[in-house]
Design a protein that fits this description.
By secondary structure, the chain is mostly helical. 68% of the residues lie in helices and 4% in strands. It has helices at 2-7, 13-42, 47-69, 71-74, 78-91, 117-136, 143-162, 167-184, 188-192, 195-207, 210-220, 231-242, 268-300, 305-329, 347-365, 376-388, and strands spanning 98-101, 104-110, 113-115.
């Protein structure tokens, strides 16, 4: 028994506790932000809370299953998982399955279940990239082998997201590709060559879409367009500013009373600022900081490249979406429509992210034997030497 206990994988309790605390905070804030509108529109103040609670329970099950499965077995599922995610994205355009809300076709709906395929696609993209980059090893430094194939696959996935349209998820997919290529040892010069191509394409995607141009206008000066395209950003800033240091008190916020649209989803950070104040914001940011710190620690101490890349990708996904969501709420970035990880209302996002956390915990648990493959820490040292030279 003593030997079994000694060899049992060690769960990172700090990482697990931070994630569970964010989920708990999310449940409280979803109820606070949605109770009044849910009662008025749906006749049930607990409507959104109950659905989010069910997602949290399913997420716990998915997290436990991912930990039990182990990240190594996930490698065999890299291609099937990405294929499944692509099929789910294509199914959005099947009549009767895809649902369009607010001009965007992002949800698959069957009786009793609504699912957002882009959330699965982000996770599948991380698994695929991690497996492929670990398999290529030193060849990642070669543009034709390490960069170009992944760039082509990423281009297809971004195109699928843009057909919904979902510009925010497209940006996240692209940034995850850059982060993992750098972590795997791709040459900085090769990635720099992509900038002259990516920027014009991204700019065209913005200027060719009237609603995206309106978001840029609102970002540049929300107060000049206070009652039109800048309304949501202006109300978000008012919500955060009115909270002060300690907030108005849980449940006492006013902006959720039909002033701030999407208060329980994209702009739940604003409600946190209004009701819990700067203290609540710092607490939440601190919890994200712990998740990112422990995620990077798991990556740097991983015994295999595949596990290291998985940890970096999952940590990067959480960090990117957190930063983008909070930046949008504070008027520091154009509106993207990305959820605040673990906190915003959204069952698909919550379940997938909690499953991804299970994978991250599995990587952090390590293994008795060490692999001979390069770890991220070795790659980073080589890249630093290359830059220094």
């Amino acid at each position: 028994m003593a030997i079994q206990a000694r060899n049992a994988p060690k769960v990172d309790m700090l990482l697990l506790s931070a994630v569970l605390a964010l989920v708990g905070l999310g449940l409280v804030m979803v109820y606070s932000a949605s109770a009044v509108t849910a009662q008025d529109k749906l006749g049930d103040a607990l409507y959104y809370l109950k659905r989010q609670a069910v997602a949290a329970v399913l997420g716990l099950g998915a997290m436990a299953a991912a930990m039990k499965l182990g990240y190594r077995r996930l490698g065999r599922l890299a291609y099937p998982l990405l294929g499944l995610a692509v099929l789910a994205m294509l199914a959005l355009f099947v009549p009767g399955l895809g649902v369009s809300v607010g001009g965007a076709r992002r949800w698959l709906r069957v009786p009793g279940i609504s699912f957002q395929p882009t959330e699965l696609l982000k996770f599948a993209w991380i698994v695929y990239l991690s497996f492929s980059l670990a398999k290529k090893k030193e060849q990642v430094a070669t543009f034709s082998v390490g960069v170009l194939p992944h760039l082509l696959v990423g281009g297809v996935l971004v195109a699928l997201c843009m057909t919904q349209p979902d510009f925010g998820s497209s940006v996240v997919l692209g940034l995850l590709l850059m982060v993992l290529l750098l972590a795997a040892g791709a040459r900085l010069g090769s990635l720099a060559l992509l900038v002259p191509v990516v920027i014009p394409v991204a700019w065209y995607a913005v200027v060719s879409s009237p609603y995206r141009m309106k978001r840029i206008t609102a970002f540049l000066d929300p107060w000049a367009h206070r009652h039109t395209v800048g309304y949501q950003v202006a109300e978000s800033l008012m919500s955060i500013g009115s909270g002060g240091v300690w907030g108005l008190g849980l449940g006492n916020g006013m902006q959720k009373l039909y002033f701030l649209p999407e208060a329980h989803t994209d702009f739940i950070f604003s409600i946190v600022g209004e009701e819990l104040g700067l203290a609540g914001i710092l607490l939440m940011v601190g919890l994200y900081g712990i998740v990112i710190w422990r995620g990077l620690k798991a990556a740097l101490s991983a015994t295999e490249s595949f596990g290291a890349y998985l940890a970096i990708g999952i940590t990067g996904l959480i960090a990117l979406q957190s930063i983008i969501n909070m930046s949008v709420a504070m008027g520091l970035a154009p509106t993207k429509g990305l959820t605040l990880p673990f906190v915003s209302y959204g069952g698909s996002s919550l379940i997938i992210l909690m499953a991804a956390t299970g994978v991250l915990l599995s990587v952090g648990a390590g293994a008795p034997e060490r692999s001979r493959s390069r770890t991220v820490s070795n790659v980073m040292r080589m890249q630093a030497a290359e830059v220094g030279a």
